[in-house]
Amino acid sequence: MIGPLTAAEQLGRLRLARTDGVGPVTYRRLLSRYATAAEALDALPGLAKSGGRATPPMVPPASVAQREIDSVAKLGGRILVLGGPDYPPLLALLDAAPPVLGDVGALAARAVAMVGARNASANGQRVAEMLAADLALAGIVVVSGMARGIDAAAHAGALSTGRTVAAIASGIDITYPPENADLQRRVAKGGAVVTEAPFGTAPQARHFPRRNCVIAGLSLGVVVVEAAPQSGSLITARMAQDEGRELFAVPGSPLDPRCRGSNDLIRSGAHLTETAADVLANLPDHPSREGLARSPMFAHGPLPGLAEPPPEAVSPAPNPNAVRRRVMELLSYSPTAVDDLIRRCQFSASVVVTALLELELADRVEMLPGNQVVLVG
Amino acid sequence: MIGPLTAAEQLGRLRLARTDGVGPVTYRRLLSRYATAAEALDALPGLAKSGGRATPPMVPPASVAQREIDSVAKLGGRILVLGGPDYPPLLALLDAAPPVLGDVGALAARAVAMVGARNASANGQRVAEMLAADLALAGIVVVSGMARGIDAAAHAGALSTGRTVAAIASGIDITYPPENADLQRRVAKGGAVVTEAPFGTAPQARHFPRRNCVIAGLSLGVVVVEAAPQSGSLITARMAQDEGRELFAVPGSPLDPRCRGSNDLIRSGAHLTETAADVLANLPDHPSREGLARSPMFAHGPLPGLAEPPPEAVSPAPNPNAVRRRVMELLSYSPTAVDDLIRRCQFSASVVVTALLELELADRVEMLPGNQVVLVG
User: Fold this and answer.
1) Which residues of A touch B269 (CB under 8 A)?
2) Is the whole model's pTM more than 0.80, yes or no?
3) Closest CA to A329 of A359, A371, A361
4) Which residues of A183-209 are buried (b: 16+ CB within 10 A; e: fewer)?
């Protein structure tokens, strides 16, 4: 178990997460390298400069971060910090777990996501509502994305008998789409609304993939109801599967293009789902071993961001410039596994990881989920 | 290859098949034991008497059988005899392959069955029609049962571009249900109508299971469109699967009870089928090994009814009464494998098989598919 974070550490981590160029992977690396967020923030300019960056990264001032914390609190919510005790543990297993989450309401552990078409048929929405109501009745929290169609039906169904969580793409204070404003308020009251986006952020198309990632990450399984091929719902489903979460799909008529994606999922192994019993019978207590094994965090322990740095090889410290030069030589525009890079470098792991941190803060490389790294073009 | 049967042998086999107490299994055994149908017919009264039957079995006179052949011919059809060259080879693989089939039209080898609800939805019928039309276009013969709903849609769809086969429960001269009379005539003209029932037989509920068996037996696979749980379509599907045929099912909404049976099939491994491509991609050239291995006929050679009797052990012929007594002692009211019976009897296989024939003709035992035998209560 991890104790509560101090207010200062909470503030520091929020500032770090909101810093220009610090993505989920860099955030984790910085916190696994420095004892506190303050130390990481202090080190940032030097690291970026070592990596070759001309101007230091933009860190939001403490006053701005404090204002965000206060605004969320005024709505009755909190900022959840990756590595803190209230951060959802299943979401923390993701490589790309959001460093901070705005949260209004309460997150619960045993959850199932339900996603599908915005332009869902009346029958599809009815199925989603019934499934969600029955899952909620069985004590399962239903997670969805507060979109039109299946999402709204899932939230509404679960609200009638239990709790539900909406992961949204905008700031926690924004309701979208307009017709779901009342539903979003009821979900915040009865369950929770969470978001990775800073307070006040308007929803934009580019935020939706990260929102989908939160939906999948919060859940032990994803139920897909009416999804066309190539739809966002299928991307959420694949992401969930990659993270070892269980996949469920509701079958539908071949005549309806909205069912082709969900039928495809069944064809490729998703559980055919007609009733909540189909979900309950196949819902594991934990993400599958396969998914966990693929998550680098699992190897280091269950609480992300707090892993010890790898043990240093006893040898004279190499010249940092030489290390960065060698790392840049070995990298290319297709992703390379960091473990492979370390082996080929002949430098110690911590020396290479430091070089990668510096290079990322200088926008010369990008860290990818799955402990991979790629040159920035 | 097997040559054509003489007219006399054809007539003899029809009489044998139409004899009181001669089911598919006994028919095969008699023809594997006697060189001709005439010899089998001559032996019948003696066998039945040995088995303990008071009066000889009712064999229809040659004139009656000839009248049936002539009536079918007048409709433009033929009687197909198991063991004859025109008998459908896939159907012949079944333990319970019908000894004779009335046939108007032409049967083709590479066929897929399509079955489903009589009270199918308009959409379900449309899917069946589209699938059947596309399969026919791809050169596949579509087999169905000429019932209302899915059956009629499948025949109509396949007729538009190709051939289709209707297996019916009545005599070849009867059309049923009335609204399909025209469709049945068009199927007989463009494809084939087949039946196990004698000429002039009215359709009765008890004929439908045997009709379903012919549908499954003629086909490399069965496509189920809209089938409720416990429906006849599911029985046909299970039968097909037991015989090593491939199973396909069209998914449907959980809200429609007519889709629950077909969805269940997908859940338990049937190919999820939206288009003809799903069928074509998974249609084998032959029934699966597993199914074939289970069929006793396969072990004896591909042409049923003509297998050689098993080699006799060189030992003095045992007393037939003693053999029958011992066999009756060993049997019970739950099915026993004939192989097991032979092993426990300590008599040669042919001696035991003869005793079983006699006992079956005397209605004291019943031969079951899968080379099993049971006491008649």
Assistant:
1) none
2) no
3) A359
4) bbebbbebbbbbbbbbbebebeeebbe
